[in-house]
């Protein structure tokens, strides 16, 4: 099939020279705006179900973008597919950060608002990807919420709070050169707390706590 420029175009896979396009490509703001517009359109048209896009949605996006930008050289594969992969990853990380009580959102500048530096440091030390996200403007985030929705749960860099605390203890211990001793001490302290909590439980009817564990 040939487009208006007479270039070879087969299912979004070849460019005007008949060669496969490069995956890495610098997108312009106009091109990104067009992709956001087309993503919003296909979501409203039912191309997403059970938090997943239906098969063939990249081709549908390419067709929509080509209507907006007739002379573009962007193809479904690899350009649109790669761009959406990056956006979903960034959306997942942002959503995870914003779920923490110490991190907010500045709707004016579209940037993260760090309220609690300790919370931010915990994430920064465990996931080095978040470091570059602090001072960057995320103007598409509100659109991503509508487009990707619950996809954030599968964010590539989502971090579980328990894992963060465990990694913080490990990092602190390694910096002090006594990893094993400190980790064991923390575990022992946790066991003490659990035992004390258990001992403070109310007595059950018919059970004499004072005699528990004694033999006559």
Oligomer classification: single chain
Helicity level, as a percent range? 40-55%
Q: Total helix count?
A: 7
Query: Which regions have little confidence, pLDDT < 50, spanning 5+ residues?
Result: 1-17, 152-175, 196-216
From the spread of the alpha carbons, the general shape counts as elongated
What is the strand tally?
Answer: 4
Strand percentage lies at 5-15%
> Overall mean pLDDT score?
73
Describe the structure.
With 216 residues, this protein is mainly α. Helix content is 49%, strand content 6%. The chain has 7 helices and 4 strands, in the order αββααββαααα. It has helices at residues 29-44, 57-68, 76-98, 117-126, 141-148, 161-176, 179-199; strands spanning 48-49, 52-53, 103-106, 111-114. A two-stranded antiparallel sheet has the order 1-2. The chain is elongated, with a radius of gyration of 26 Å. The termini are far apart.
Brief write-up:
The protein has 216 residues and is mainly alpha-helical. Helices cover 49% and strands 6% of the residues.
Question: What keyword list fits this structure?
Answer:
single chain; 216 residues; mainly alpha; two-stranded antiparallel sheet; 4 strands; 49% helix; elongated; disordered N terminus; disordered C terminus
């Amino acid at each position: 099939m040939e487009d208006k420029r007479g270039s070879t175009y087969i299912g979004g896979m070849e460019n005007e020279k008949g060669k496969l396009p490069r995956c890495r490509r610098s997108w312009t703001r106009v091109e990104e705006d067009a992709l956001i517009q087309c993503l919003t359109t296909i979501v409203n048209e039912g191309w997403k179900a059970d938090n997943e896009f239906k098969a063939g949605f990249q081709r549908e996006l390419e067709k929509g973008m080509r209507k907006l930008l007739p002379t573009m050289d962007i193809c479904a594969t690899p350009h649109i597919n790669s761009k959406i992969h990056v956006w979903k990853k960034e959306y997942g990380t942002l959503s995870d950060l914003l779920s923490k009580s110490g991190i907010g959102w500045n709707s004016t500048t579209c940037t993260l608002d760090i309220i609690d530096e300790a919370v931010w440091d915990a994430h920064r030390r465990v996931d080095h990807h978040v470091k570059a996200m602090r001072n960057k403007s995320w103007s598409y985030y509100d659109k991503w919420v509508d487009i990707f929705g619950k996809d954030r749960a599968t964010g590539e860099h989502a971090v579980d709070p328990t894992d963060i605390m465990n990694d913080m203890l490990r990092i602190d211990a390694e910096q002090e050169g006594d990893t094993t001793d400190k980790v064991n001490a923390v575990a022992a302290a946790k066991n003490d707390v659990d035992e004390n909590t258990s001992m403070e439980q109310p007595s059950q009817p018919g059970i004499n706590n004072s005699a528990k564990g004694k033999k006559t």
